[in-house]
Amino acid sequence: MSTLNLDRLFAPRSVAVIGATERPHAVGQVVLRNLIAAGYEGAIFPVNPNRSEIQGLKAYPDVASLPVIPDLAVICTPAATVAGLIDALGRRGTKAAVVISAGFGESGASARQALLDAARPHGLRILGPNCVGLLSPRIRVNASFAHMAAQPGSLAFVAQSGALCTAVIDWAGANGIGFTQVVSLGDMLDVDFGDVLDYLGTDSHTRGLLLYVEGVTAPRKFLSAARAVSRNKPIIAIKAGRHEAGERAARSHTGALAGSYSVYESALQRAGIVLVDSVEALFDAAETLALSRRPLTGDRLAILTNGGGPGVLAADSVATQGGTLAALAPETIAALDEVLPGNWSHSNPVDIVGDCTADRYLAALRVLDGAPGVDAVLVMHVPTALLPSEEAARALAAPMAACQLPLLSCWMGGVSAEPARALLAAHRIPCYPAPKAAVSAFMTLVKHQRTQELLMQTPASVPEVFTPDIPAARAPIEAALAAGRDQLTEVEAKAVLRAYGFAIVDTRLATTPEAAVAMAVSIGFPVVVKLISPEILHKSDVGGVALDLESPEAVRSAVLAMVTRVQRLCPDAAIEGFSVQQMVRRTRARELILGVATDPVFGPVILFGDGGTAVEVLADKAIALPPLNMMLASDLIRRTRVFRLLRGFRDHPAANLEAIAVDLVRLSQLVIDVPEIVELDINPLLADHEGTIALDARIRVARASCRGAERLAIRPYPVELEETIELPGVGKLLLRPIRPEDEAAHLEFCERVDPQDMYFRFFTRSRDFSHTQLARFTQIDYDREMAFIAVHPDPRAGFETVGVVRAVSDADNTAAEFGILVRSDFQGKGLGLALMRKIIAYCRSRGTGRIYGHVLPTNRGMLALATKLGFELDHATDDNVVIANLKLRDQAPHESP
Predict the structure, then answer these.
(1) Does residue 649 carry a pLDDT above 90?
(2) What does the pLDDT look like over 356-391, one tens digit per residue?
(3) What separation in angstroms does the CA of 690 have from each of 303, 395, 655, 886?
(4) pLDDT tops 60 at residue 248
(5) Is the pLDDT of residue 797 over 60?
(6) pLDDT (0 to 100) of residue 108
(7) Is there a single domain that holds both residue 730 and residue 694?
(8) I need a surface site. Which of 97, 368, 395, 802 has the fewest CB within 10 A?
(9) Is position 235 within any domain?
(10) For the chain, what is the largest distance between any 2 Cα atoms, rounded to a whole number of angstroms?
(11) Claim to verify: residue 657 and residue 765 sit in the same structural domain
(12) CB neighbours (10 Å) of residue 476?
């Protein structure tokens, strides 16, 4: 339901408190007291059948007797009464309720379902149950039983933990931090993170969102909402449960390595969310991102200080936290030599010595601001008698604020430095009392920049086009499931991978020692022999792998020795046979692991890392959510320690990183196409300058309950929506969803559109689109936006974009706004009509209530097209545009008009 009726929750015009009382320390007494004390200007209605007046307000016996329909009800009564109250409120017309009542966990799923069943027919939204409530300080709403009020501000805090909500209110009050909303989600029976993100993402008063996450219940909605909001507002989160009490049971290396926190970390990063590890860091990050005037473009930090020791501490902290200390270019050092005394440090940190003046600071700052190889500057000050803290801040604040590079400051000292830090903050310069905190703030900017790159950077196309043989991949899986097996043999697993274009070493199955010898002779020596047993997960643990076998006798001896060891070490294990494969000798290749695990929340996840038999010990891995493209696959590789080795060192040439990325994209597509895959290991995948080859593979399967794309947390490219049409005088055109790889073609398309047509579409004649704008056109979230392009064959580039139609739905899917643009030389040929029909059919198929667009009165062609398609045209608007509106379905009774 997303944002439906959330305005009644977050900005109510009247509030009923059900269970209000005079009894000291009762929840109903505290909630009513808080509402009154906050100075709420709307009507407050206490509801209690036993009192006519409570806390000076007229009380009402039940919902039916309320004089007006309350926008919001706060329910503080026992759990057993809540479903009936929700039903009564819904029938009365109330659209939002905060259920503070606890005890629904003990009552079982039926009690929770009763609340939903009572609310849904009326479109009544429920926050909770088992929550502290909510506070909207800007409009003086405190519908909570928090022990103190929150101050108004521009941050929103959303948490599953009520206790953390009250602790944060207390901490923020002591530190002068205010909020637009403080939301205690409780059990998230209805309103969840995705709903609140969608609502607050469009709230002009909220400039940043802070989250405390224990778990996510609707991952696709959550990620879709977060990806949309984080493009415009910073989202910073703490994820509880960094260290799990126990390891999750798994049948593969990947399953063991893909812990819950790691998956959340990857998912939040993919959504553009900055992850921190403490409440203090949460607010520090919010302040840093809010005060940062300019976007960061890299992670190279220059440190300017009047104290050598603190500068060294800051430099150490940069290294510890994964940043980069900027290397000063020779020309930068020469420029600093001209303005600094001879005893300055001549390196980064730039120590300008303890006897420095404000003028010396300014001279060095002018050199560092814009110096090559420097992405940001940290200005540090240690108080001295020659340059006290406040004097330094007064002299430097304005010049620091005018710097071109992102700039942070660290004014060390206790009480004496507080006025200086306040002065810098007044100039919107982030200021911190200690080197570690300042560097942490810088790393927050780095994290934010990297998450934005994942959202905005244009992915490269897959350089090697591969067409998977899906039937060939499915055949061994179906055979295993039909036989009641959940584990594929190594030969079957490699057949699946081969169908998706992976380079696979020649592997054959033998059931007897004699067959193993015969296959080894056929393959050619040397060979590798491996044990096949469903009860033995890791063959090397029982000596089930024999390498470099050079003769038939060596093969026979290895097989017999394996049988003997298994009978001794694992007498209950069934031996199904032996895999015989060619021995691959690539001495400088690196052993890697590629894998798939199924997370209970986010579904399939892709793992990459350092491989081999010690994979769990090394634990060098990174995780990403499918679907992957080349850019995301490359980022996944870069997030591991083994990446530094893959780039080459000493006499080891760099591995073919592109080939590894392609394999990750293949794996991502396999997961989408074949939902029966539960876990998968490719370990080891050998990688060197020649490319990659999979030496071993393991796949666990289960009957799929849904299509592959439906189990993903992020909706992949909807290939099923591609369609070929033929138009007179044009020929065949492909109508398909837009992809990130279309950015260059989209730019060329816009450049070839007539300025007047551009004006009709964007209300401006400019055809100058930045990379960020083009990325937003081409990198869409298919869950809430759709853009179809018309692709025409082009002898030069393979294809060209000649038209585009787009529809952006609101969070509730009640309405979608469309826009259409056809290249000027393709107009009048029926393309506009074909594109509009396609977007209308798409919106209708996903249940969108209506589709509408803003059309200039002079755009007669579009008005005629809209009329032909049955749109109603409303000329009576204040902004001199025509609203074209087409109803696609009847409005549900509970929907707001």
Answers:
(1) no
(2) 889 999 999 999 998 999 999 999 999 988 899 999
(3) 42, 59, 7, 57
(4) no
(5) no
(6) 66
(7) no
(8) 395
(9) no
(10) 98
(11) no
(12) 20
Determine how many CB atoms are found less than 10 A away from the CB of residue 776.
Answer: 15
- Give the pLDDT score at 795: 59
Please state, in angstroms and rounded to a whole number, the distance separating the CA atoms of residues 897 and 890.
Answer: 11
- Of 381, 401, 429, the one marking the end of a domain is 429
**Cβ–Cβ under 8 Å, residues 562 and 544:** yes
DSSP state for residue 866 in the 8-state scheme? H
CATH number for the domain that contains residue 809: 3.40.630.30
Q: Is residue 734 part of a domain?
A: yes
**52-61 own/partner pairs: CB under 8 Å, 24+ apart:** 54/20, 54/21, 54/22, 55/20, 55/22, 55/29, 57/32, 59/20
Whether the CB-CB separation of 532 and 575 falls below 8 Å is answered with: yes
The predicted model gives 696-716 an average pLDDT of 86
| Core vs surface per residue 42-75: b (16+ CB within 10 A) or e | bbbbbbbeebeebbebebbeebeebeeebbbbbb
Residue 36 and residue 155 in one domain: yes
Domain count, the chain: 5
CATH number of domain containing 702 = 3.30.470.20
Claim to verify: residue 763 and residue 633 sit in the same structural domain: no
Task: Return the CATH number at 521.
Answer: 3.30.1490.20
Which residues does 210 contact at the CB level (< 8 Å), separation at least 6? 155, 156, 157, 158, 235, 236, 237, 282, 283, 286
Residue ranges making up the domain that contains 649: 590-711
- Residue 12 is assigned to a structural domain of this protein: yes
Residue among 57, 58, 62, 96 at smallest CA distance from 77? 62
Cα 323 to the center of its chain, rounded Å = 22
* Section 56-83 average pLDDT: 96
**The 3-state secondary structure of 92-158, one letter per residue:** HCCCEEEECCCCHHHHCHHHHHHHHHHHHHHCCEEECCCCCEEEEHHHCEEEECCCCCCCEEEEEEE
What percentage of the chain's residues is helix, strand, coil (to nearest 5)? 40, 25, 40
Q: What is the pLDDT of residues 396-427, one digit of tens each?
A: 999 999 999 999 999 998 888 999 998 998 88
H or E segment to which residue 686 belongs? strand 677-688
Do 413 and 301 fall into the same domain? yes
Residue 278 lies in a domain: no
pLDDT digits (tens, 9 = 90+) for 739-753: 877 888 888 898 888
Number of neighbouring beta carbons within 10 Å of residue 345: 18
Last residue of a domain, one of 206, 222, 254: 206
* DSSP annotation string for 300-330: EEEEEES-HHHHHHHHHHHHHTT-EEPPPPH
Q: Are residues 60 and 198 in the same domain?
A: yes
